Predict the 3D structure of the following.
Amino acid sequence: MENGVTEKVHCLIIGSGPAGYTAAIYAARANMKPVLYQGIQPGGQLTITTEVENYPGYPEGIQGPEMMVHFEKQAARMGTDIRYGLATAVDFTGPVHKVQIDEEKWIEADAVIISTGASAKWLGLESEQRLNGYGVSACAVCDGFFFRGKEVSIVGAGDTACEEALYLSKLASTVHMIVRKDQHGMRASKVMQDRVIATPNIKIYWNSETLEVMGETKTEAVRIKNNKTGDEQTIPVSAFFVAIGHEPNSGIFKGWLDMDEAGYIQTIPGTSKTNIEGVFASGDVQDKIYRQAVTAAGSGCMAALDAERYLSARGMV
């Protein structure tokens, strides 16, 4: 292990979305004295979401960033030591788990809860980032409701893109689906492709790429180009959904924890336990199926309860 300050903590939580903060609330109430590092995006993906209407307990809806402030305050009130800082390396060789913060300080922890989340992949357009939250979204299930009865667009060619297009088709008047390759190059399973093609209000643009999301203060249109003909066209839409995948924030755990081919941390089914005793994973870093705030919070609760049982069995809590 490299030189640097070493601190010993009981329960270390990495990440500060719904999973990390919920784990902290439970861990603090169980007297596990949790220390939580917020990571690169304090509050997680919800801080780039505007209105949240599907989280229970908020009948009028709430802004994503405000909801995460509530989570943070509750975790702090229970006694969580919340800190700025990014986990940059780990050493899980021995019974004491070591985590490096900001490439300098090492922390030793009896139990580690990983809640580092996932990040949506983007096309990399300036206009896409500028209008993010103003009609541009990476979550149709979260934001599709706001565009009921309107024309929307979605970019992507996998099963998730097809699922989201079908979901949007039940809400929007027309779904304009932009696919980079032709039908043979579509990554989605045949059954999902067939469903999309058979849905009357989904219009597919094959061999097409997005050039620009248009609008000053909100999404008003999308400009696309056909890669075969070179023709460009502008489609008036109220929303632009990006469904080209998510990237789990699991890089520093490679070589230590079991992961699937996409890098999602694998947990023992029905638990938050990883292949290393005393290391638990919750939230979107281990969930590529649901990816909702409420499921992340639920898995954060599971991780804290699993960690408490682990420490209790060893007489540490």
Notes: The chain has two domains: 6-119+246-313, 122-242. The CA atoms of residues 104 and 239 lie 43 Å apart. The longest strand covers residues 105-114. The two ends are 27 Å apart (CA to CA).
